[in-house]
Amino acid sequence: MSGRDFHFVMIKPTHYDDDGYPIQWLRSAIPSNTLASLNGLAEAARNRQVLGKDVRIHLHTYDETNKRVRPEKIARDIRKAGGKALIALVGVQSNQFPRATDLARRFLGLGLPVAIGGFHVSGCISMLDEMPEEMVRLQKEGVVYFAGEAEDGRLDDVFRDAFSDDLKPLYNFMADLPSLEGEPTPILPTQHIRFTAGSHSSFDLGRGCPFQCSFCTIINVQGRKSRFRSADDLEQIIRDNVAQGIDRFFITDDNFARNREWEPLFDRLIQLREQESFDIKFIIQVDTLCHRIDGFIEKATRAGVNRVFIGLENINPDNLMAAKKRQNKITEYREMLQKWRAYGATTYAGYIIGFPGDTKESVLHDVEIIKKELPLDLLEFFYLTPLPGSEDHKVLSSKGSWMDPDLNKYDLNHRVSHHPKMSDEDWEEAYRQAWASYYSDDHIETVLRRAAAHRKGRPGNKLFLMMWFKLMVECEGVHPLEGGYFRLKFRTDRRGGLPLENPLMFYPRYLAEIVAKHWVYLSAVWRVYRIYRRVKASPGRRTYSDLAIAPMNRSEEEDLAMIRETRGGAEAVAKQLRDAALSKAGKDRAKAASAL
Ligand code: SF4
Predict the structure, then answer these.
(1) Mutation probe of ligand 1 site: the residue of 126, 212, 213 with most atoms within 8 A of C-beta
(2) Radical SAM core domain location, by residue (predicted)?
(3) Residues sharing a CB contact under 8 Å with residue 324, sequence separation 6 or more, in sequence order
């Protein structure tokens, strides 16, 4: 080895399906923000020549959801090129930890040093008194952990330690969250983007959140104090990406509406779009009170936001209180969704199943209410999951309650704990039926009719997205967010501990699966396409109206099932009226005082 070259291999691992094969696609759904952020930092470190003028730093990025990782080949290539190396398994979530463990062992066996970072490592170090067993075991085998964020020159230090064979067992920056302003911008090489459906790139503009939802890991990893990138940083990100031909972006901040710099950020995007004709589009995530922020939705859509993820989580105030999601007011949901609809944005909402007040019947009743009364386009369901790093996990751990020991299942698409009221079977059945009910042909038709009734409704786009969600769940057995097009499976990549299958069994079955799935895809698409054509051809499509999209006054809203039939709905309305009266009285007092 020459010692004058340093290879930094960044791998975002996937996780295993129920048969033990890594979930991989020809085209995956969403590119990894962590990979983009770390690659941006690594490029900056290379440009600054942090290992000295005579050391060439080589960067290699792998998103395992769309690119197979072959440790033996990577090791061979590094050996051939010469020099030292560090394998970084990045952004590893709890459900990806078993896959990261298998990869780490293979790289260690090939004599390459391995570091693991991401939400599992950071969350466990932040919330648990002791490192969990699986982490301790791997650390003893030689894996290095990185907890916290890599900005502020921290990656440079890791490079230097790796280059001088002096890596520490743990880099712990949890107590010191860096500022993001002026930090290198997240960027991924174009070939990654080509392997994502819709060719989106992703980046974050802020980290941290002031709220305290008990199921959330973000607040315990990224902190409750929000930190932001500046409008100049944002412009740089856009220009760098557009120069590579990338103009569709997913801004990964969990709650962009609480980014106090939202307005200058949107203004800069508006300027790029309206004065320099940048054809850029964005997906953002917001909370249910974003419509109360003056001008937020108007500016968001002018800035190019055309899809919005909303953390609805539940429509029962008692469940929201139990999860400390006090900021969600069900009385605001309709108005907020109607406003996004008026501005032509497609709305997605997350709905968590398994809060303490839920029963199978109540969950399915809630789904019916949402279908009827909320003008929502896409709904995605999740099991309430005690993710390591969340308050829920800490509480269950301290009580010694059962949690599934297989971290691979902590993908929000598997049940990993018991429910206080529902049997395991009822909980799983409620989850399955909720998906089936929302993505039934009848409801797809309703969503298309609502879209066709609005001049900015884009029913074709809604149809595509609804079918994507439906088919990922029904055909592929994965959550839509980790889905993709054309499932790849490699016989020899099976999960450690499971036997390798006989090729004569594996390949014919894989082929049969592909044929069967494509048959289901085609027949489902043909069926809903006929619905779409019917909706588009309907002469009265512009005048269609229903309970979800019709304008209503406050007293009519009080009659909605979402208010009358949810647990705590009526109290929520009473509180809203009380708050409004108090706020009005305050304003009147201030007005009277200023008139004196
Ligand atoms: S609003 Fe989102 S990021 Fe903030 S605490 Fe709740 S779940 Fe976490």
Answers:
(1) 213
(2) 195-429
(3) 211, 212, 213, 214, 391
Structure tokens at 71: 């440790």
Indicate the length of the chain as a whole number: 596
User: pLDDT of 275-302, one tens digit each?
Assistant: 999 999 999 999 999 999 999 999 999 9
Pairing of strands 84-89, 114-117: parallel
Structure confidence by residue, pLDDT tens digits, 429-476: 999 999 999 999 999 999 999 999 999 999 999 999 999 999 999 999
Q: Could you give the number of structural domains in the chain? A: 2
User: Phi and psi of 5, rounded to 5°?
Assistant: -125, 145
Task: Tell me what ipTM this predicted complex has.
Answer: 0.99
Mean pLDDT of the region 141-162: 96
∠ at Cα 184 (179, 188), nearest 5°?
125
Q: Residue 24: phi, psi to the nearest 5?
A: -140, 150
Identify whether 357 is part of a domain. Answer: no
User: How far lies 321's CA from each of 25, 213, 357, 483, in Å?
Assistant: 39, 9, 11, 32
What letter would DSSP give residue 403? B
Residue 116 lies in a domain: yes
Separation of 213 CA from ligand 1 center, angstroms? Answer: 6
Residues 89 and 54: beta-carbon distance below 8 Å: no
Residue closest to 2 by CA, chosen among 82, 109, 92: 82
Report how far ligand 1's centroid is from the alpha carbon of 217 (Å). Answer: 8
Distance CA 101, CA 132 (A): 14
Tokens of 496: 């450690």
* Minimum-distance ligand 1 atom for the alpha carbon of 215: 7
Q: What residues contact residue 385 under an 8 Å CB cut-off, 6+ apart? A: 215, 410, 412, 416, 417
Among 124, 152, 172, identify where a domain stops: 172
Q: What digits encode the pLDDT tens for the residues 503-521?
A: 999 999 999 999 999 999 9
Single out the residue in 124, 157, 172 at which a domain terminates.
Answer: 172
- Cβ contact 480:382 at 8 Å: no
The pairing of strands 200-203 and 170-172 is unpaired
CA distances from 313 to 70, 78, 288, 558 (A): 39, 46, 10, 21
Report the C-alpha gap between 571 and 556 in whole angstroms. 16
Domain that holds residue 588: 566-595
User: Residue whose CA is closest, atom 1 of ligand 1?
Assistant: 211
Pick the atom of ligand 1 nearest to 313's CA: 7
18 part of a folded domain: yes
- Predicted TM-score (pTM) of the model is 0.91
- CA distance linking residue 365 with residue 320, whole number of Å: 17
